[in-house]
Amino acid sequence: xxxxxxxxxxxxxxxxxxxxxxxxxxxxNSGSQENTDFMEKGDGEHLVCAVTGKLIKIAPAxxxxxxxxxxxxxxxxxxxxxxxxxxxxxxxxxxxxxxLFGIVPACSYVSQGTPIYVFGGTILNGxxxxxxxxxxxxxxxxxxxxxxxxxxxxxxxxxxxxKAYLQDNGLELGKDVxxxxxxxxxxxxxxxxxxQCDLFICNNAQGYTYSTTMDDIKVPAVPADITGDYPCxxxxxxxxxxxxxxxxxxxxxxxLIRGYDYYLNNKEDVIKRMVDYSAQxxxxxxxxxxxxxxxxxxxxxxxxxHTNEIVQYYKAMLSIGEIEGDPNxxxxxxxxxxxxRALDRLVSxxxxxxxYQKLAADFDIYNS
Length: 368
Fold this sequence. Notes:
This protein is α/β, with parallel strands linked by helices and about 375 residues long. The protein has helices at about 10-25, 60-65, 70, 85-90, 105-110, 155-170, 185-195, 205-215, 225, 240-245, 245-265, 265-280, 280-290, 305-320, 330-335, 335-350, 355-365; strands at about 5, 45-50, 75-80, 100, 115-120, 125-130, 150, 180, 200-205, 215-220, 235-240.
């Protein structure tokens, strides 16, 4: 049940299988209430969950594994190291049960008619801006971005939501504000220093690394302060896992929420464990997971699926032309059913636990 096994390359075959599967995936659920009997079944099933590298953003799942929570909850889960693109391709043809990353790929697959269920949260608000220290513009409203050139990576979730926000507030993308995809941070840093771009949208804690090791780089703002909350990495699962292993997914989620509670309440031990797991420095791990007096971390590791925000994010991708498809497709696949059952179980078992009580109190705010 420990992490580190590897899946062989499946992409070429799976891509073809996915295309064939699309022909069979119709709108069988459209206009009718789906039978929910399956939600009481699927207990004790073997789950395969993909992880990517040694990223500590999935700390609650890592902790749940290390502390034996999956075993205690009767969850038979196997963690396998898989590239992000391979994970989505595998899930699309039911060769993989779960992955813990990728809101952008999940939305892309759903827009094409492939059933990928987004059933829980991994990270909320995971992006930040970096600039040179000479950049002195306040970034609080859409108008503050007029005339700026912004570098970003295609998979960075914050850039999608920012584009949609700016467009919705009167800026024309490509004219009033320009975005350019870059392949790596080195290219973006060179662009900042040469004046080819004003900002670089990067992932949480990259700003910590750059601003503490480079005298000319700072973190001037974060997208979430301008756009509001947006989903970053999510817990995604295949159609087969959702419909045939539902109660096993609930067991998985119970263990993961317990890992989240441990993360919130055991900072020193969590930092040590994540240092050992990732081989990152203690200073970096603390900054990334908790923040410091000088650095504000943006990663919110809440397991809440935030289904309202997932649907909004999908529509944001549609509005800026990143995807095409049914504007209401994600309504079906952004689901809180697994999470709610898991949370209800924990609230019942541990009525005095403040973490579970807070998650329960917030549930209706983010999932309606």
